[in-house]
Structures are given as C-alpha cells and as structure tokens.
Write a structure and sequence with these properties.
The complex is a heterodimer. By secondary structure, chain A is α/β, with parallel strands linked by helices. Chain A contains 16 helices and 23 strands. Chain A is 35% helix and 21% strand. Chain A is globular, with a radius of gyration of 22 Å. In chain B, the strands form two sheets. A five-stranded mixed sheet of chain B has the order 3-2-8-6-7. A two-stranded antiparallel sheet of chain B has the order 4-5. Classes of the chains: A alpha/beta, B mainly beta. Chains A and B meet through strand 9, helix 4 and strand 10 of A and strand 1 and strand 5 of B.
C-alpha cells in the first residue's frame, strides 16, 4: 500500500480493469461513475428491477461482459465505489462531485480518467425530430430499458456499431426497414487485410451483415442522408445513392458516424492534447502506458482515443500500473519511469491495426461539410444552423473554433459541444479552407454537465462539505 | 391513434407497475423505467424545443446531449434518460392546452 488516494473516473471496461490492478497491489481505489450500475456503455446493465439474461443483453460479448462485470462485483468490498456520481470539475488535484443533489470535493494523488465516448454525429435535416436517435441511444434503449426506439427502424451513418445495432434490433423483434451506410460497401473489402489483425472481430461484423441480408433487410452503401420526414415525429427517411433518391418509411432512425472521446475532464486537468489522424480529433497526449502530460493524471479507454472495449481493458490495467509505478517510485526516479514507458505495449498493436482498418471500412462522408445545406440545424441545443456558422466565418473572418463559439454560441448550449463539435469543426474547416486540425478544438468548461444553480452556491469553497464527513 | 415512440420488447421477469402523472393524467409505467422510458412508451414527446415550438424526445439516451430535460409540476427539472421514475411523480411535457 502507498497510503495515496487513487481515483478512477468511469466504471466501464477501462475503469473496472484499472480498479482490479490497483486492488491487486493492495490499494483501495475510489471509483466514481455517473451511472447507477457499473459496466460503462458497452456492458451497461439494466436496473435491478429488470432481470434479464446476459446472453440476451450482450449477444456474442456475453462471455466477455460476464468476465468483466463479475470480476468488478467481486472487488466491491475493496473499492470505494461511488455510483450515480458526476465529476463536474478537476482543479488542483481535487475533483468536484455531484451525488444525490449534493456537491463534494475529492482530493487525489493519482487520477485515472476512463471517461468513455459518445456517438460522433454528422447531422442531416430533420435530425431533431422525435424518433431520431443515435446508434448508441438505440443500444441503450435495448440493453438498459428493454425497449426499441421504434417498431420499424432505419439505421444509418457509418461505423461498426451500425451493423451491430441493426442486427441486435432484428434479433429482438424489431423491423429493420433499411441499413444505410454512408461509406461505400466496397471499402469493407479494402479494409480486410487490416482487419485480419483481429480476425474474430472482423468475422462477427461479416456475420451481422450476412444475417441482416438473410432476413431480407435492404443494405445500401455510399448513401447520403437527405432528410428525416415528419412533423411531430419521424415518419420516413429520404436518401440518395448512386444518383437516385429513395424514401423509406419508418417510425425511428438510429444514426451515427463512429465514436468521439469524452475529453472534457482531461482538458480541465490541464492535459496537453495532440492531433490524432485516425480519430480526426484532438486527444489528450499520453505515453504508451497511459500517462498524460500532467503528473498524477492517467488516461485509459475510449475517453483517450477510440480503440474499443477490449483495448480499454488493456489500457485501464496499464494506466493503473503506471500510477502505481510512479507513486511507489522515489521522486528522483520518476523521470526514469516516464522514459521506460516510451516502449510500445505489444498487446495493443492488433487493436491499433484494426482501428486503422475500421477507418478505411467506415470512412466519414468526405463531402459532408460541402453538401450541408444552410438551413441544417448543427446545434440541437440552440438550433444554430450551418448557414449561421458560414455567415460568421464570412463576416468576421473567424478561423478558430472557440472564436466561432464566442460569436455564434455553437458549442455553448447544454451539451457543451458533445453533439455539434464534429459537425461544427468540419463546417469551419471547409468554410476557411483549413485542415481540420488547424481550426482547433472546443475548450472544456466546468461544470462539464448542467448543475442546478443552487448547488453552485453550496460549492463555494468556504461551504464545501469536507470529504472526511462522508456518511 | 398516436403511436408512442418507444416499443417494449418481450421477455424478462415481470415488473411491478409504477403510478405517476403526465400532464395531469394518471398513468402507469414499470419499475426500472427511466422517466424517458415512461413518457415515450406512452407518448411522443418529452418537451418542446427552447427555440421553437417543435417537440423533442431525447437523442443520446446516455446523459450527454441534454436534450431530454423535463420539468416536474413542482418546478424541479431533471434529465429524463438518467432519472429513474418514482411513484407519484408529476411530469409536464410542456404541451400547451
């Protein structure tokens, strides 16, 4: 034991494996998680009242899910586990927490951020209509609430989740009206060599596609989404492929274009960011073991870069080990342990190769920004349109995302840019003729999610509830 | 007839009903439901957009997009996709009558 406080944010695959490694070393880590039950998004568990079989919930991943969930359950008495708790600020080696309507502070010696990801969304006209959800939402509805986003669903966008969710819906009694991939189906063939880095995962993807086709589900590639139809709710999706326009009747649409990392807490912790060519995003800098640029702050899982659940387990354990090494090490040897970590972790190599192949198979629509109409709502919080963003660039010469935010309020709404940033970044880059990386990234702001204003008064430093008075 | 947004799937253990109120009407949903699930297995909207009269029904379902905030009769606001339904809750969707 070091006598130091290790805090893990997030109880998905990365956070659970990090906790396991710390407990094995005799530590008692704090695990703070926003959800009521551990598992993260991929192994999300339904509420206690809803007893369902893991085979039914997780399909092919049931064995993996059970291994991770059961392992963490067995650790529970060795972990200070704080479910239903939001971390809304990181400052000076202290977290600000919100739980059951009360704020608390939590100082740490080592912080492992395993904050996960949400869908990466490139919107299309009508995406704010009731019945239009992300692919991740379609999965949450099914796994967490035993519901479908509608009886008759179109799945659209691109990414491995597109086919997985469509298959999950088809095998739970949902009618899948169509699967519309914005990437060409031929791109999947080009990606095959890279995907062989993880043949079993690639085989599952091929299986989903084959089963969908067997069930008679229309699957189309190279699709442009023109608009969701409907007044009070979605009733159809109009789309374009190979020069022809089609309309598919449906009750719901699930769409997304891969995933984006949740990096706000790393940003608030002061971590440096690097441009990542695979994710097309600015991500917190980390060494091969998971050390950020800030001593005592470690990064793991999809929150630090999209590599999937299995890689998240590896990076969670690795980040925890790095934290243990650093806190056990005398200050003089700290720099040496940082150098040592420059060595690549061999176990991660297949995940990196596979991730590159996925980017080939499920490339983002290259002309999205050029084709977005001026009246397209980009910010669903405050209904800011593509035309407003373009006009701002034209009228003010704004060339940087935070400047665009200051002038148009894009990224300033309640989601703080989680839903609009990928789209706004692309529109800004297109309008200015800059590369994506050169328009910058939205800075994280505390609180990272909305808090009742009354609580902010409570959270003034003089009135904070000290951690020791925890009941 | 107005078909609700969400459709429950079959299977799983039977669950107790939870009574609550939606825009002044007595309704029931199931134990384990979030407020979002309760509202959208009965109806088509959670609220109106802050900037137009158009209805909204959530988007990410994982507490990120903040699209699903609803108001209780008491004035308290809550995020419907991450808040379990509690017996006796009185939720308003902002539907004007």
């Amino acid at each position: 034991m070091t006598g130091k406080r290790f805090v893990i944010v997030g109880a998905g695959p990365a956070g659970m494996r990090a906790a396991e490694r710390l407990v094995a070393a005799g530590e008692r880590p704090v695990v703070v998680d926003e959800a009521e039950r551990f598992g993260g998004q991929i192994y999300r568990q339904p509420p206690e009242a809803m007893q369902r079989e893991r085979r039914d919930l997780y399909g092919f991943e049931a064995g993996r899910a059970s291994a991770v969930l059961d392992r963490f359950e067995a650790l529970r008495e060795h972990v200070d586990y704080r479910p239903a708790t939001l971390v809304w600020q990181v400052e000076a080696n202290t977290l600000q927490l919100l739980h059951a309507g009360r704020t608390r502070t939590l100082p740490f010696d080592a912080l492992i951020l395993a904050t996960g990801a949400t869908d990466r969304v490139l919107p299309f006209p009508g995406w704010t209509l009731p019945g239009v959800y992300t692919l991740g939402a379609a999965q949450v509805a099914l796994k967490f609430q035993a519901t479908l986003i509608g009886p008759r669903v179109v799945f659209a966008g691109t990414g491995p989740l597109l086919y997985l969710v469509a298959w999950q819906y088809a095998s739970h009694g949902g009618q899948v009206a169509a699967v519309l991939d914005s990437a060409p189906l031929s791109a999947k063939l080009r990606a095959v060599p890279g995907m062989l880095a993880r043949p079993a995962v690639a085989a599952k993807g091929a299986y989903f596609l084959a089963r969908l086709r067997l069930k008679g589900v229309p699957v189309h590639g190279g699709v442009t989404l023109l608009r969701a139809e409907g007044g009070e709710r979605v009733t159809a999706l109009t789309w374009l492929a190979q020069g022809a326009t089609h309309t598919t009747d449906c009750d719901a649409i699930g769409f997304g274009h891969g995933l984006r990392s949740e990096t706000q807490l790393a940003d608030l912790a002061g971590c440096a960011f690097d441009w990542n060519e695979i994710d097309h995003a600015w991500l917190p800098t980390r060494d091969a073991a998971g050390r950020s640029s800030v001593p005592g702050v470690y990064l793991a899982g999809d929150g630090a870069g999209i590599l999937g659940a299995d890689a998240a387990e590896l990076s969670g354990a690795s980040a925890a080990q790095a934290a243990l090494d650093d806190l056990h090490a005398a200050p003089s040897s700290l720099s040496r342990s940082r150098e040592r970590a420059g060595v690549r972790v061999p176990a991660m190599q297949p995940h990196l190769a596979f991730r590159r192949a996925l980017e080939t198979a499920f490339a983002l629509p290259p002309r999205w920004a050029a084709e977005a109409s001026d009246d397209l709502i980009v910010c669903r919080c405050e209904e800011i349109t593509a035309g407003e963003l373009r006009a701002c660039v034209r009228d003010t010469g704004a060339r940087e995302l935070n400047r665009l935010k200051a002038l148009t309020r894009i990224g300033m709404g309640r989601c703080q840019g989680r839903m609009c940033a990928p789209a706004a970044t692309r529109l800004l880059a297109h309008a200015t003729g800059c590369a994506l990386k050169d328009v910058g990234r939205l800075r994280g702001q505390a609180p990272v999610k909305p808090l009742p204003v009354a609580l902010l008064h409570d959270a003034a430093p003089s009135t904070l509830v000290p951690e020791d008075e925890d009941d | 007839m107005r078909t609700p947004i969400l459709k429950r799937i079959d299977g799983g253990a039977p669950r107790d009903e939870i009574a609550f109120q939606l825009d002044g009407r007595a309704c029931t949903a199931l134990e384990g439901d979030t407020v979002l699930t309760a509202l959208l297995t009965l109806g088509q909207r959670l609220r109106e957009s802050d900037f137009s009269p158009l209805p909204r029904a959530g988007f990410c379902l994982m507490g990120a997009c903040q699209d699903c905030w609803v108001q209780l009769e008491s004035g308290e606001r809550l995020r419907a996709c991450t808040t379990p339904l509690v017996p006796g809750m009185h939720v308003r969707t902002g539907t004007r009558r």
